[in-house]
Fold:
Amino acid sequence: MKLNKIAFLLAIILFLIFILIASSDEGIINEIIWLILILLAGHNVFLGAIKDVYQSKILSEFFLMTLSTIGAFLLEYYEEAALIMLIYNFGELIQKKAVEKAKAKIEAANKLKIKEAIREKSNGNTQIISPMEIEEGDILLFKNGEMICVDGELLSENMWVDMSSITGESKPVFLKKGDNVLSGSICMETLAKIKARKKFEDSNIYKILIEVEASLLNKSKYEKFIRRFSKKYVPVVVLIALAIFIFPIFLDGDYNYKKWLYRSLVVLMISCPCAFLVSIPLSYFLGIGALSKKGIISKGSEFIDLIAKSRKVFFDKTGTLTKNVLKIQKVEALNGYSKDQILILAKIAESISNHPIAKAIVGESAFYPIDNFSAKEIPGEGIIAQIKDEKILIGSKNFLKEKGININNFDKTNFIEVYVAKNSSLIGRILLEDEIKEGAKNLGEELRKYKIKKVAILTGDNFNKAEKIAREIKADLFYAELKPFEKSEIIINEKRNSKEKIIYVGDGLNDAVAISNADIGVSLGKLSSDLSMKAADVSILDDNPKKIIEMILTSRKIFSIVIQNTVIAISIKAIVMIFGLLGDAKIWQALAADVGATIVVILNSLRIIKT
Ligand code: ADP
Ligand code: MG
Structure:
């Protein structure tokens, strides 16, 4: 037990003994015993007040408490002076407990963010490992859009990285062979080879993982408003208290300074904004904790307000509404190529990508050790690869068309179509089937039940596919064959045309821009790309799109609890204020009302954990 708690307990015991023995005998001994008791009970508050005055934060909570205690003591209301400290500290104790409980929950959720790494063995083969297995000196491979999970040295010739989650600088940084790569950076190269300098546990990434906690400082508008409000509110009430003490001199024929000082102390006590200051941040804090327990990581309390108010939800298709495990349905070959030849070229080219299409084509093995190979992924479009002397293009119809390739040889289908070209001529097509996720069925209809007015799909995939999925989820509308920036333009237009808040949910590299432009950007999925996770305001570590409904309902509940708490706190204070002015309230009652209000709002906030 800490010294604080011992002193506090001791004070309570003494207080009870004292009340029982009824310290009716007047005298200096009596006063000294009360003084010791009050110091025991309130030493932390007095020290806090001295510190605050020293830092010129005169009108702090501690200062108000100290002032009232001194006032009550001088007026010889010893029990009350002691009660002020006891009640105040009791309230503090309860608050701390609630906060500690919530913190433990949030920390547990953070650990879920750690994913996997690819290690290159000495024979050139690769192996998927957990980041915990990384040893110093290991050679690791990272793909475009992945977060580098270890501090190390760059072995590739050069590399662009996005270090904004570490430095806040959003421009990409260029690194050369031998340079240090900081973990937490995002790989913007097709494929980067990095030699680990540290173990995962010692890497910078651990600090990044704590980012969610730091984001708790990301206050919501409402929270900031309450802070500003209480800053102005305290001085105003102190002035009112002073007026109550002074003005009656002119009005009251037989002015009794004791009576009016007492009343002004009551008012002062009520001015203590504890109930707001504690309950509102606590509600958001618990809210973020409750969300993260469900695998919904919000990077700040401001998003809870925004989600609660949102009326539009736009979804990406592939990987978000449809399963990210795709199946190859058919390989079609042209110009005398065999299906196997098409597949082999596709496998090599796709080995650098994390896209669900790439995973389906590549299959089990992570990389093909092959000389003279380089490739680049164009998010949402496809891949340009150089395999030995041959230039391979693989991607959507529009992507190949734009590269000047003639595509008239194939019919339209209801599958995901991936076209393969070699040295400027089309050589084949791979058709993949993506199945709608169980949780996506009728999602649009369900969202509309909860006051969402517009549900849309934005996809880079073809029209037929988009239409089919839109029908299955009962979306209001869909847009197909979009490039990443077009997705983002649609979001920006929506925002321009109406004030209603818009949520965008995506998973891939191609969703990052749209995610960062939406009012609330959400990355969904255990396998969602690190880039979209980083761009997101909220990361859902679950593949089920139904989580969006949970996110909206939980946020609304949190927001309504915040509003309830504000109303409760203001009403209790207003009532006691009136009694105080009429002279019917005692100082300790005024404080008990504040602590009581604080406890009521804390209990109300704790309901959030159960959501
Ligand atoms: P969505 O917007 O629904 O998530 P994407 O933007 O990821 O879909 O993909 C759109 C289209 O671009 C795909 O249907 C495919 O034709 C093509 N494409 C994207 N990435 C790749 C890739 N790595 N390999 C081949 N084709 C790709
Ligand atoms: Mg996607």
